[in-house]
Amino acid sequence: MTTIKITSGSFTFLAEAHPDAPNTLGAFLKLLPYRQKFIHVRWSGEGCWVPLGDYQLNEGGKPVGFENHTSHPSVGDILFYPGGYSETEIIMAYGPCNFSSKLGQLAGNHFLTITQGRENLRALGLKTLWEGAQDVLFELA
């Protein structure tokens, strides 16, 4: 099982790869180490997201489509939305979350689940809400 280390400020998390999203995971692994910024979600509830505009994640020369997708991530679930109705993004739930955009409900590929450090997810989410964008680093553990 592939383990990803996620660092944001003073918070460190370990996430396990979800086997039902092999194309998303394969393409994402090629980006590592991956540096971005988390911002707080606008419509989805309690989550942080990485807006990626019109970025296209590719695996095997083809754009990643939908696989293992959901609109209701659990705490610690990380989804990749390949774009279409809204911009491409990564979203991480730290509390109740209904993945949505200004155009309505979305579904993203569940490709990572935080297994260690979950007790700090709410603190990171609230820090992002009240203090603004937070640097985030995804790398192999």
What does this protein look like?
- By secondary structure, the protein is mainly β.
- The chain has one domain (3-140): Cyclophilin (Beta Barrel), CATH 2.40.100.
- The protein contains two helices and 13 strands.
- The protein has helices at residues 22-29, 121-131; strands spanning 3-8, 11-17, 34-40, 45-51, 58-59, 62-63, 69-70, 77-81, 89-97, 100-101, 104-105, 108-116, 134-140.
- It has an eight-stranded antiparallel beta barrel. The chain has a two-stranded antiparallel ribbon with strand order 5-6.
- A hairpin with a 2-residue loop joins strand 5 and strand 6.
- The longest helix has 11 residues, at 121-131.
- The radius of gyration is 14 Å and the shape is globular.
- The model has no long low-confidence stretch (mean pLDDT 95).
How do the strands line up in the largest sheet?
1-2-12-8-9-4-3-13
Whole-number count of domains: 1
- The helix-strand sequence is EEHEEEEEEEEEEHE
Largest sheet: 8 strands, antiparallel, barrel
Quickly give the structural class. mainly beta
Which stretches are low in confidence, meaning pLDDT under 50 for 5 or more residues running?
none
Helix content: 10-25%
Average pLDDT taken over every residue? 95
> What is the count of helical runs?
2
Kindly estimate the percentage of residues that lie in beta strands according to DSSP: over 45%
CATH topology: Cyclophilin
Give the class-level CATH name.
Answer: Mainly Beta
